[in-house]
Amino acid sequence: MLSFITLAISTMLYQNPQAPVEERVEDLLGRMTLEEKVGQMNQCVGVEHFRSNMGTLTEEDLLTNTAQAFYPGLVPEDLLKLTREGKIGSFLHVLTVEEANQLQREAMKSRLAIPIIFGIDAIHGNANAPDNTVYPTNIGLACSFDTDMAHKIARQTAREMRAMNMHWTFNPNVEVARDPRWGRCGETFGEDPLLVTRMGVEQVKGYQGNLDSENDVLACVKHFVGGSQPENGTNGAPFDCSERTIREVFFPPFKAGVDAGALSLMTSHNEVNGVPAHTDPWLMTDVLRGEWGFKGFVVSDWYDIEHVHDLHRTAENNKEAFYQSVMAGMDMHMHGPEFTDAVVELVREGRIPESRIDESVRRILRVKFALGLFENPYADEKTTMDVRLCDEHRNTALEAARNSIVLLKNDGLLPLKRGRYKKILVTGINADDENILGDWSAQQKRENVSTVLDGLRAADPSAEFVFVDQGWDPRNMDRAKVNEAARAAADADLCVVVAGEYMMRYRWADRTCGEDTDRSDIDLVGLQNELIRRVAASGKPTLLVLINGRPLGVEWAAENLPAIIEAWEPGMTGGRAIAEIIYGDVNPSAKLAITIPRSVGQTRMIYNHKPSMYFHPVVVTPSTPLYPFGHGLSYNTYEYSNLRLSEKTIGTDGSTVVSVDVTNRGKRDGVEIVQLYIHDCYAQTTRPVKELKDFRRVALAPGETRTVEFTVGPDQLRYLDRKMNPIVEPGDFTIMAGPSSEDDKLLKTTLTVE
Ligand code: BGC
Fold first, then answer.
1. Is pTM beyond 0.90 here?
2. What sign does the dihedral 54-55-61-67 (CA atoms) show?
């Protein structure tokens, strides 16, 4: 009897890897009970996560916490039971391969042995789990304008994830960041829709490959939509925005991610013009599936369906919120067991048709089959570390960090000549701290983290580095330590202050930047400004290095210090990369992917603003940003010349080749990021003063000139007319090429469309 059952099971169509995926999905769906189907739509936190929070978190905390959870009324072992019953389709926040395999073993005991898909926030490498390669966060990566690097990192991350049985990353974050107060700027690719789009697309492709090998993971474009322009800068606050801006600025990276094949998408915490995104059929069904043809599944964000009830208050209870969300197009619930019973009930009551549930389950099962989870549900615990943190990945992290660090200002102080400064003061909260890893990173082993102090010591063994520790905590700096640094500065030949924000997740409540860590100011926190001024008052050359995830308005430093480096969150090799730039072993090339405003009053200081934005400049302070989008220095100077068009006049469906010559006038090899902007001179609706339409990283030897060519045609010229239809309108367009978005640095010519 037993062998007959085994035989029957092993010959079930859905278990046959040779059978086409669609047939396997239908076969399996046909065998599932309603409870099992809804179970596939449900996600829970891992058992160890649950265990570590059940003693420390209260039920009250659960209403506001977005990173830690437990399930009141249950114990961790209940999750194992639910898994065996086939009532959990996915887990998140599982941090070890051992736990992932253990949960998978439980799933394999369920009636139909449907494997779990494990999701994790692998935002910059699978850094949220220990012992993985930590690359720069997205904002730094975007500053490299290096889309190949974005692809490569995603590919490597996918391999490291699969090596620990993770199958699904909650990245890329393709939100267009438009508020520096928002603590999540660092996990975005900045403020420009084109740059965000290109970076996001390469990450989707890099993570997913063809979604058919054991080295592929599922990508998730998030958060749909508008979380990056929250009303008061705080995470999850209302997004009140015209449909035109939503379509022109915020949608394009999502649409491109869908076109690139992303098979999951996460909705945003916020309401969109009065409707919570999690229950918005316009977003999840009309646009996503109707207009864009999205084939994957939509996952909710952390307890955000519940927040439709307890926060947004457009549902009287959770069950009603689940109803609204599923009917609007939600496929998977993050997270907790309450969803399953409620949705089963809603189907039994005839409110949700079972066919609606089937749609979601098909989308989820397709991905599980595509990823080969039915055939390979486990990862090999013995070989897991062969891939994770391997030399190839560490080297990529280093190269990415080198290319992501922006030299904001340099009055000739940098690069330092070895031996010139014998005694160097190093101080500041980020001088010798793991915080260099950035948000979305767990603590990593000390030997895997290169701090700025480590990097400097290795870069110039002949110098004496005097370190005055300011602690890690910007809010609780000790004035005695500031005094000590000021005294040490007087005795030093050069000073390096490493300032910024604090992002480490394990000290959630002490952070100043990161998820749910928003500010009403963008100046340095605590005694950091005082530290910089006191050190600089020594009269010794003082270099400021910033480690942070959001733009910081360091106006005093910009006016008074000879050099500033914006290193963002450069990851595990960050200290070494910074030191290599300081000593000129690496010639900096990165350019800002986001404007740095002077102060919080310049919150919407985006480069691609509308013409009337500064019609009346503000009084008393300048109406220009501290550093504009696209700005970034090198140890070379690059000269731009000879901007020309192959055709000066084209038809509305025609195109022209824009050429510009770029010459390296410096003494070093270097990479220049050449930027192409356009401006539509007259149009039916107001157009931004500039829009980035293309960019290229160009390597140039000293004295070398290269001609860079861009094509400008309908894709670059199109916009939405008054009725929201895409058109290319006859008229003149200013074509601009140069080293940054700053107007007087750009060469300009006119293209006429007839
Ligand atoms: C964040 C998401 C993340 C999820 C799981 C939420 O709080 O908004 O971006 O993927 O938590 O960690």
1. yes
2. negative
Is position 301 annotated as part of the catalytic site?
A: yes
Give the Cα separation of 653 and 713 in Å (integer): 7
For the residues 606-634, what does the mean pLDDT come to? 96
CB distance 551 to 271 below 8 Å: no
* Mutational pocket test of ligand 1: of 68, 220, 302, the residue with most ligand atoms within 8 Å of the beta carbon: 302
3-state secondary structure of 746: coil
Calpha distance 566→547 (Å, rounded): 7
Q: How confident is the model at residue 11, as a pLDDT?
A: 78
Q: Which atom of ligand 1 is nearest to the CA of 66?
A: 7
Q: Kindly state if the Cβ of 304 falls inside 6 Å of ligand 1.
A: no
Q: Closest Cα to residue 372, out of 165, 260, 211? A: 211
Answer whether 610's CB lies under 8 Å from 575's CB. no
Residues 6+ apart with CB under 8 A from 509: none
Cross-strand partners of 753: 650, 731
DSSP designation for 145: T
> In the numeric block, which tokens belong to residue 715?
């894709």
Q: Which of 280, 301, 331, 454 is catalytic?
A: 301
User: Starting from the edge strand earliest in sequence, which strands make up the sheet with 117-120, in order?
Assistant: 168-169, 117-120, 90-92, 42-45, 333-334
- Please give the backbone phi and psi of residue 622, each rounded to the nearest 5 degrees, phi first: -70, 155
Using the predicted structure, report yes or no on whether residue 1 has a pLDDT greater than 50: no
- Per-residue model confidence (pLDDT) at position 55: 87
130 Cα to the center of ligand 1, angstroms: 18
The confidence band for 3, taking pLDDT boundaries of 50, 70 and 90, is very low
Q: Count CA atoms closer than 13 A to 474's CA, side-chain side.
A: 25
Residue 112 has pLDDT above 50, yes or no: yes
Distance between Cα 647 and ligand 1 center (Å): 48
Cβ of 434 less than 6 Å from ligand 1? no
- Which residue, among 588, 629, 577, 627, has the nearest Cα to 738 in the 3D structure? 629
Residue in 331, 337, 376, 363 with CA at minimum distance from that of residue 108: 376
What is the mean pLDDT of the segment spanning 255-262? 98
Cβ–ligand 1 contact at 65 (below 6 Å): no
Pocket of ligand 1 contains residue 170 by CB under 6 Å? yes
SS3 of 720-732: the string is ECCCCCEECCCEE
Distance CA 660, CA 674 (A): 9
Cβ atoms within 10 Å, residue 322: 30
CA distance 704 to 169: 42
User: Of 304, 384, 373, nearest to 90 (Cα)?
Assistant: 373
Task: Find all residues with CB under 8 Å of 247, minimum gap 6, and list them.
Answer: 720, 724
DSSP assignment letter at 524: P
Distance CA 79, CA 68 (A): 16
Residues 531 and 561: their CA atoms lie apart, in Å, by 13
* Cα(388)–Cα(379) distance, integer angstroms: 13
- Counting other chains too, the contacts that 337-341 makes at CB distance below 8 Å and 24 or more residues apart are 337/42, 337/44, 337/71, 337/74, 337/78, 337/82, 337/87, 337/88, 338/306, 339/38, 339/41, 339/42, 339/305, 340/35, 340/38, 340/39, 340/41, 340/42, 340/87
Ligand 1 contact via 121 beta carbon (within 6 Å): yes
For 482, the token pair is: 């500031």
Residues 6 or more apart whose Cβ sits within 8 Å of residue 115: 104, 107, 108, 368, 373, 374, 377
